[in-house]
Amino acid sequence: MANPGNTGAEAERLAATFLQRQGLKLVETNYRCRFGEIDLICKDQNSLVFVEVRLRGNDAFGGAAASITAGKQHKLVLAARHYLQQLRSFPACRFDVVLLRSLRDNDIEWIRNAFGE
After folding, report:
1. C-alpha–C-alpha distance, residues 94 and 58, integer Å
2. Structural domain tally of the chain?
3. Host H or E run for residue 39
4. What residues contact residue 108 under an 8 Å CB cut-off, 6+ apart?
5. CA-CA-CA-CA dihedral for 84, 87, 93, 98, to nearest 10
6. What's the predicted TM-score (pTM) here?
7. In this structure, what CATH number is given to the domain that contains residue 77?
8. Which residues does 69 contact at the CB level (< 8 Å), separation at least 6?
9. Where does the UniProt annotation place the signal sequence (predicted)?
10. Which of 27, 83, 93, 99 is deepest in the core (most CB within 10 A)?
11. pLDDT score, position 16
């Protein structure tokens, strides 16, 4: 049985592998700053993609998608702005969400442009 404390890290690894198979390039994992954390940062051609990964085994309380509240979205936007301040130029950006119902490849839902500013 998997260690429950590692399921989030496993979900992020699975999501990263999935996105790489879709053609994205992984730039950074678990970017942390005073505003919060961004699970994955990827490049999709000329765009920078900030990815939130959510694992929810059931749909109680709205499931994984509902757990990304307006407050969480705001923190992700602030963390993304913090990350962008370190770059020399500002690429096109988007926020994607990867939802997992389990730690299996066939239980992944990828939502591109899930939210914005």
Report:
1. 27
2. 1
3. strand 36-44
4. 14, 15, 18, 98, 99, 100
5. -70
6. 0.87
7. 3.40.1350.10
8. none
9. none
10. 99
11. 97
